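Chain entry —
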Amino acid sequence: MTEMVYGAVPQRDGEPVLPKWWRTVDKWTMSCILILFGIGILLGLAASPPLAEKNGFDPFHYVQRQAVFGGLALVAMLITSMLSPLVVRRLAVLGFLAAFLALVFLPLFGTDFGKGATRWYSLGFASIQPSEFLKPVFVVVAAWMMAAAQDIGGPPGRLWSFALMVAIVLMLVMQPDFGQASLVLFGWTVMYFVAGAPMLLLVGLAVAVVLGGTFAYQNSEHVARRIDGFLSQDVDPTTQIGYATNAIREGGFFGVGVGEGQVKWSLPDAHTDFIIAVAAEEYGLVLVLVIIALYGSVVLRSLLRLMHERDPFIRLGGTGLACIFGVQAMINMGVAVRLLPAKGMTLPFVSYGGSSLIAGGIAMGMLLAFTRTRPQGEIGDLLRARRR
């Protein structure tokens, strides 16, 4: 009977891993991610040569590194997507412990690379940003705790996940890294909402965020400078936001032409935080809309598949991963068009960055593992059976 229900497929005992994975994985989502990575390489060819020249490297130094990191990310995504949700959960717990400890010791052994925020461990040949790896594994661990709390006699998983979220957010704020802190807070809030959080608690959390933001604005010069710059009616054309907004305006609908953009010569972060400005200037609104459609497709398709999932752990974990992925992209592009204050956040799979790419590959691998087709009925069938 299960194969007659939407989303169900017959179970085949002894089926090899690869054919079973290919039959059950969401190929549309995987295709969108591969296209985003391809667009990232294309934009890297346009945005990174000026920075490579400035730093004394070969013109395509950063593109080559992005291809290597991206290849590792795609391998990590494919391998993770083949795992069962149980194995994903177990590996996420181990990954969370490692990433959490790395975040704890970051103030002692980390570096800021002259950017004013201690976010990285320098390995000489590369750097690691623990918060990038902490996000996806925290989502899975928090989903496990929230799902366990729904069992009769289960542990206070919601309280435990809340305590972990607060600890992580506080450590990120101390770096300071308000962008990653906001993503962790948003991911936990979305999962808690889906798990059935009372509205009064969510309202209280929103009030706490507003009060915390006000406190940060009044006591942090870094935060105040970014908020004031965002609220100012006049944009300094010599700032990164000024260069980015002008480039987007100059690009128009079809762009100024491949290789003809000028913003990459002015923006030090043209290949990372402001990669969308390069896309808008050289390829115009057309490519930007394609990028937005790809991110939207990944998020919406994943959420639609998760709506039919009966396992609360899979449903919560997948929802958190999909929403963080989409919101990170929205924040990055929102900053470039001055809809949001500057955050210093990469565009997933498009921006340059080893930690961002590999951690993104792991996160999307988890999401693909959670959204694979399984022999089960719709969640609505379960609810109707309970009513009877």
